[in-house]
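User: Can you help me understand a structure? I only have the sequence.
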Amino acid sequence: MLELVLTGTAGAMLLALTLVTCIDVVARYWFNRPLAGAYELTEVLLSALIFVALPVTTARREHVDVDLVEMFAGKPLRAFMHRLADLLCGLVLGLFAWRVFVHAVSLQNDGAVTDSLSLPLAPLGYLAAAACAVSSLICLLRLRLPYQS
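Assistant: Let's start by predicting it. Here is the structure, written out as tokens:
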């Protein structure tokens, strides 16, 4: 269910990003009136899109990886390497979640906003922290599952 919500949200954000870009380009070159704040909207939407997709990408094991040893390794070594990767990724993402959350609190306390549209930045920080926390949890919970090659 969470995967469906996140992929739907990511799709909606991608559509919004496409619309903002198209409207800005048409308005800029046909009417000489670019869309006000298009650059900021693009930044915020792209950032949010990346973090909304992070837990889905983690759950599906679709991160980019390089398998230099895996094709020569036996199943026990591959299982160990996958478990080690899940452990390290889970710990690093957990650390990211904590630090990004601390930064988001700081952004909220400072009242930080974007330059031209005055969009608050703290919600984006909380989204990033939550996405990292969920992804960390996925990696750490995967340690309890049997290895599948």
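Now, to help you interpret it: Residues 114 and 120 are 7 Å apart (CA to CA). The chain has four helices and no strands. Let me know which part you'd like to focus on.
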